[in-house]
């Protein structure tokens, strides 16, 4: 038993009342070989806490292995992808925006060129409990609970910023401006009809130059990236919604559902329906374990 008295000389780490607003919260659990292709959040910073297993995140062109008990920060506007190992694990992802930390650019959590992975260390229990609290609160579709979720997000951001403060490990990144501009455009427009000619016209360069520069950085052609991005989004919809494949295909820019289903099966070796059943079964087993 103990009693702790708090001093009133606290320091607000956020400036001008700009506290985080949480935009999404997600968990991947016991899904081996889960992957998600390059994407970006123009306004959101992303904090990932891995409490089990291991995954490889690529930010821009640098890859980072994130293991149990480690925290990863993906700054807003950063292109990033994910690949989970064969060993099932669990990671909590919190996306936030509209905040400003003292001494940093608005919307940023880390100082420039800070290595984005760090062991939670003495804050391990905080990240576990904060993730569990958000997992509980997000189930209540009520303005009061959404406000409480924002308070939890503010706590996660402030503890994360403190964890990485004065980190001695730095990184250097290549200048990817042209290829990244193309990637950001594709990431925001993948639901629309896009051809190589349209990209060449938009960026005022030849089709061959677009393809070469993009593939040189991201190891995939622009058109194949669009297909992979649509399939990634379809996977999320299949797992987390009850929408039919026809509805999903139309949202992702395909009028021909059979064509998109064939693309899906060719890449994942499962039909959309089989994919949904497989992963909903995994999620059901997880719920049983938690009850």
What does this structure look like?
43% of the residues lie in helices and 19% in strands. It is α+β, with helices and mostly antiparallel strands. It has two domains: 21-164, Jelly Rolls (Sandwich), CATH 2.60.120; 177-280, Arc Repressor Mutant, subunit A, CATH 1.10.10. The protein has a five-stranded antiparallel beta sheet with strand order 1-8-3-6-9, covered by helices on one side. Strand 4 and strand 5 form a beta hairpin. The model has no long low-confidence stretch (mean pLDDT 90).
Topology, pairings included?
Elements: E1 21-29, E2 35-39, E3 45-52, E4 54-59, E5 62-67, E6 70-74, E7 80-84, E8 90-97, E9 117-119, H1 124-137, H2 143-164, H3 177-189, H4 196-203, H5 207-218, H6 222-240, H7 245-251, H8 257-268, H9 272-290
In CATH, what is the homologous superfamily of the largest domain? Jelly Rolls
Whole-number tally of structural domains: 2
- CATH class value of the largest domain: Mainly Beta
Gross morphology: globular
Largest sheet: 5 strands, antiparallel
Structural class: alpha+beta
Adjacency order of strands in the biggest sheet: 1-8-3-6-9
Strand content: 15-25%
* Helix percentage range: 40-55%
The poorly predicted ranges are: none
Topology as a string of helices (H) and strands (E): EEEEEEEEEHHHHHHHHH
End-to-end separation = 30 Å
CATH architecture of the largest domain: Sandwich
The tally of strands reads 9
> Helix segment count?
9
Summarize the structure.
A five-stranded antiparallel β-sheet has the order 1-8-3-6-9, with helices on one face. It has a four-stranded antiparallel β-sheet with strand order 2-7-4-5.
